[in-house]
Amino acid sequence: MFDNPNAIEYRTLPAVHRFTALQTGEIDILLSNTTWTISRDTLIGLEFAPIIFYDGQGMMVHKNSGIKSLKDMQDSTICVISGTTTELNLADQMQIRKVSYKPLTFEEVNVAFSA
């Protein structure tokens, strides 16, 4: 595989299907920004490799929107990838702050970026 670039097939999967594809053997390894959670570590039956990247979450808004915090996003439509920890974290944080919003979910990240 190291000297043969044709030995590897790269596939794009929607986030919601990534664990099923790994569990069923459809793919051999998942190379993705995947949050390591206790439920994923214990319930899915997969083995997480060492952490190679730490990240965080934030919002991207137009500079002149006046939005400075999540509370300023009351009744906003927010793009998010379905089936991700980000989607769950968004729901949790908006509920804590009692901010109503409309999630606009996408299965593929490039489509979300375009939106």
Characterization of the model:
The chain has 115 residues and is of the alpha+beta class. It has helices spanning 18-23, 38-42, 85-96, 109-114; strands at 76-81, 101-106. It is built from 4 helices and 2 strands, in the order ααβαβα. Strand 1 (76-81), helix 3 (85-96) and strand 2 (101-106) form a beta-alpha-beta unit. The longest helix is centred in the C-terminal third of the chain and has 12 residues, at 85-96. The mean pLDDT is 89.
Name the descriptors.
single chain; alpha+beta; 2 domains; 2 strands
> Globular, elongated, flat, extended or rod-shaped: what is the shape?
elongated
Q: Order of strands across the widest beta sheet?
A: 1-2
Radius of gyration: 17 Å
Helical content stands at 25-40%
Average pLDDT figure? 89
Give the SSE map:
Layout: H1 18-23, H2 38-42, E1 76-81, H3 85-96, E2 101-106, H4 109-114
Parallel strand pairs: 1-2
